[in-house]
Design goal:
3-stranded parallel sheet; globular
Length: about 220
């Protein structure tokens, strides 16, 4: 099943690159630079201008090399649109059972955002595979560690405020992977078309996460 292949790619690299605010005409060279740096999973947020065009273009140009998904999906209509455009997975900034059901009906990977044990368990009861902890930096690394006590068999992806300075901390705290936006897809690098620097930055994020991920962390059962 495709969703299991996406999950495996997320686990292997430890990074979901988040495209937010990047123009459709810039998204292909950005994605190629990230691919060269080891990124295999890319999310285009729906609050980015021309997001459907970007998803379609990425699917055509790099769909055989990278898994392309959509983020900031806030309702079922938007979920349908992004999947029609080619998105292989969907992320949301909240936990919306209607969106979860819509994506699951299409047998695609759904990653809703959660912030409390109640939301986490509601999502798990709906068969959600991966959980987005958001806003991760606001909740803090210690919060993730504390969740690992009673809920240590979950696959949690911190998103929001992940940087080179704290990515190792999240890995050590038990994160399955992390989502990284502007700290990776740096607007200045994109504007200057500094693709090699973007590639190097992607490599650094991936290496730092993988080197610090706990060796005894639970692996996703494929």
């Amino acid at each position: 099943m495709i969703k299991h292949r996406v999950i495996h790619a997320i686990e292997e690299t430890g990074i979901i690159a988040i495209v937010i605010g990047t123009k459709p005409e810039e998204v292909i060279p950005v994605a190629r630079a990230l691919y060269d740096g080891g990124v295999r999973v890319l999310e285009v947020t729906c609050n980015t201008s021309g997001y459907l065009r970007s998803i379609e273009a990425l699917t055509v140009e790099l769909g055989d090399k990278m898994w392309i998904g959509a983020g900031t999906v806030i309702n079922p209509v938007m979920a349908q649109l992004v999947m029609d455009a080619g998105a292989n997975f969907v992320l949301a900034p909240d936990f919306n059972p209607q969106v979860v059901s819509m994506v699951h009906e299409k047998q695609k990977l759904m990653i809703p955002a959660v912030a409390t044990p109640s939301e986490i368990l509601q999502a798990c009861r709906m068969g959600v595979d991966l959980l987005k902890l958001f806003p991760a930096n606001g909740l803090g690394v210690n919060y993730l560690k504390e969740l690992q006590g009673p809920l240590n068999n979950l696959f949690i992806i911190p998103v929001g405020g992940v940087t080179l300075n704290n990515v190792a901390d999240f890995a050590q705290a038990g994160a399955f992977a992390v989502g990284v936006g502007s700290e990776l897809i740096n607007k200045t690098l994109v504007a200057e078309q500094a693709w090699q620097q973007l590639t190097d930055l992607a490599q650094t994020f991936i290496t730092r996460f993988r080197e610090n991920k706990k060796p005894d962390d639970v692996c996703y059962p494929l």
